[in-house]
Amino acid sequence: MSSAIAPLVLFVLASTITPGGATTLAAATGAQFGFRRSFPLLIGISAGLSTLAAFAAAGLSSLLMAAPSLQLALKVAGSAYMLWLAWKIGSGGPPKAQTEVASPPGFSSGVGLLWMNPKAWAMCAGAAASYAALAAHPLQFAALLGAAFGVASALSLSVWCVAGVLLSQWLRTALQWHALNATLALLLVASILPMWT
């Protein structure tokens, strides 16, 4: 059984560690607010991906594939949300100047990011289609896929958040912070483009 699950583990690790909207947001939040204050966001993103994978494995992804208008609505809403997050990141300055007024995105923001992200839907639907033979029952497969994506994303997002925290220790001036924020915002915007091509 472990040899059969190994390809799934490699797939979920590779798909969650690669740069994208969630990883960029984890790095930006880590740089701005530190790991501890970013933790609710990381848990929210992981929970969102875990439940999304479980629903995809249980068969909900087939509904999205059969309803192009629902797919388009999801794509528009997800892109708008990610653009709003990019604007929030890009307009930020040094963290010390914002600690009284700004707070990091929380648990619900993380869940929302994943549930409105067509790339995440496609990734989970692809995994559900590719690895469905790993379990005899759809609910068993949903639990397996949900757990695999949940654990892998928690690990991957922690790495990106810590990278953001470490990067923030090198930044000394407001100009450097603005450059970092603008770069991370542009990366987040760039992560939207593959959804539309």
Characterization of this structure:
The protein has 197 residues and is an all-alpha fold. Helix content is 80%, strand content 0%. It is built from nine helices and no strands. Helix 1 crosses helix 7, helix 2 packs across helix 5 (107-115) and helix 2 packs antiparallel against helix 7. 40% of the residues are buried. The model is unreliable at 97-101 (pLDDT under 50).
What proportion of the residues is helical, as a percent range?
over 70%
The main pleated sheet reads as: none
Write down the secondary-structure element order: HHHHHHHHH
Number of DSSP-assigned strands: 0
Q: Return residue spans where pLDDT drops below 50 for at least 5 consecutive residues.
A: 97-101
What is the molecular shape? globular
Based on secondary structure, the structural category is: mainly alpha
Give average pLDDT, whole number: 82
What integer value in Å does the Rg equal?
17 Å
Number of helices: 9
Strand percentage lies at: under 5%
Task: Report how far apart the termini are.
Answer: 37 Å
